[in-house]
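Illustration 12: NADPH-dependent FMN reductase.
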Amino acid sequence: MTDVHVAAVCGSLREASTTRFALECALEAAEHAGASTELLDLREFELPIFDADRDREDAGDAAELAARLRAADAILLGSPMYHGSYSSPLKTALDYCGFDEFRDKTVGLLAVSGGAFPVTTLEHLRSVCRSLNAWVIPHEAAIPNANAAFEDGAFVESALEKRVATLGRRAVQYATIEPDPGSFESDQNVGAEGK
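Figure caption equivalent — predicted structure in token form:
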């Protein structure tokens, strides 16, 4: 596919982030599938805690982040598992976005854990995306025991590397899908739209 742009949002602020590394691998696979890509590293954005009384344009780099997500045809969301859910930096980034950034957009999910499978992280992200009327790719990438999953800047297991690469390829493959029907929750969600 040509003219497909995939943006990945890294919800980890760690310098040596396994989430970031995995997203970079997914983006590499998306590039091999013909897409242009960009990593939106939240360490590079000034994003204050979301305040519904503050306009997005007055909230640091929130408007820039939202604009870059709107420009993407598909979005990958990656997060470490914190207390059974996703990270607060990613939550803040998503709170500054709304239907304009996610409605009918293809979204792929990736979660990393230092221990067991980060299933609840993926479930929580899927719920948020569904509320924003995004189309979430059925294939998702979960990386448990992250400290043992990588060695010398590479995946230890080829099966896990393949799963992450598949997420990147699917983001390109389904970037132009027209979801139907919409999410049943979306008409109930006003959230932070326009903020």
